[in-house]
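Sequence, please.
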């Protein structure tokens, strides 16, 4: 079985392999952080969480935030 990635491209500065994901099982917190632009993201983790899961949640959250219009309504919920 192939190993999953543990370093990723930053969604803010686009540097490849600049994002590292760390998992703190004691506190059940996962963190993705860019060593170039210092952006970071934290989320809760379980025993099954892998670094790719943390990075994917960060990307999903970025997309969710970018799909909100000026009045704070998500674009898919906005009725014209």
């Amino acid at each position: 079985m192939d190993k999953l990635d543990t370093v990723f491209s930053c969604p803010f500065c686009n540097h490849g392999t600049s994002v590292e994901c760390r998992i703190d099982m004691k506190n059940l917190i996962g963190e993705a952080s860019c060593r170039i632009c210092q952006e970071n993201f934290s989320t809760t983790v379980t025993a099954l969480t892998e670094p790719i899961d943390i990075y994917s949640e960060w990307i999903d959250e970025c997309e969710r935030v970018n799909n909100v219009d000026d009045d704070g309504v998500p674009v898919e919920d906005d009725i014209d």
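Helices lie at 51-66.
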